[in-house]
Write a sequence for this structure.
């Protein structure tokens, strides 16, 4: 289990760290009590990220190579086992959120976090991408980038190497799936 987490963290550092290099820095700093200026900064930051990650937008075919799980049995013991997927396949579609949609979200609610443009998954104003899975894997929140998508009980990460990890956990069980995706369009 530690190995899977370490591989996921390492892959995330290598794949995500380099993609945000141009869009980071003082050029996108927010200022307290300047809502309209901050919304413009959020939109500019989103346009920068979208330009960097445009090639990742679209439909992907993914295949699970391994799933491992842990659960608590009736005697309250932790039981772990490897689940062999039958070459489970699914599709995901990453879609850009339009600037008009982002502006509407920003105008209607909290419009950002001071000094942290991508620090909150729940802030709809900051979201640049939405994702859909087929078959459905639940409701995932949008993301500031094309790498990380969160749901209420999990996280899906599509690394720069086109490998993925999907973590799903609830109080009684936890699953980790690993695999690879191929861009279709």
């Amino acid at each position: 289990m530690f190995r899977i987490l370490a591989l996921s963290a390492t892959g995330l550092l290598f794949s995500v760290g380099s993609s945000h290099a141009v869009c980071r820095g003082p050029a996108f700093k927010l200022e307290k009590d300047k809502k309209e200026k901050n919304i413009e900064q959020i939109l500019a930051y989103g346009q920068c990220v979208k330009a960097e990650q445009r090639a990742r937008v679209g439909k992907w075919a993914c295949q699970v190579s391994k799933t491992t799980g842990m659960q608590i049995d009736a005697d309250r013991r932790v039981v772990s086992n490897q689940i062999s997927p039958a070459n489970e396949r699914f599709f995901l579609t990453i879609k850009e959120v339009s600037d008009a949609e982002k502006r509407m979200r920003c105008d209607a609610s909290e419009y950002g976090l001071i000094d942290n443009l991508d620090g909150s998954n729940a802030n709809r104003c900051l979201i640049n991408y939405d994702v859909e899975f087929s078959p459905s894997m639940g409701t995932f929140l949008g993301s500031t980038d094309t790498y990380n998508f969160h749901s209420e009980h999990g996280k899906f990460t599509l690394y720069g190497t086109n490998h993925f990890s999907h973590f799903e956990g609830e109080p009684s069980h936890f699953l980790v799936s690993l695999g690879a995706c191929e861009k279709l369009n």
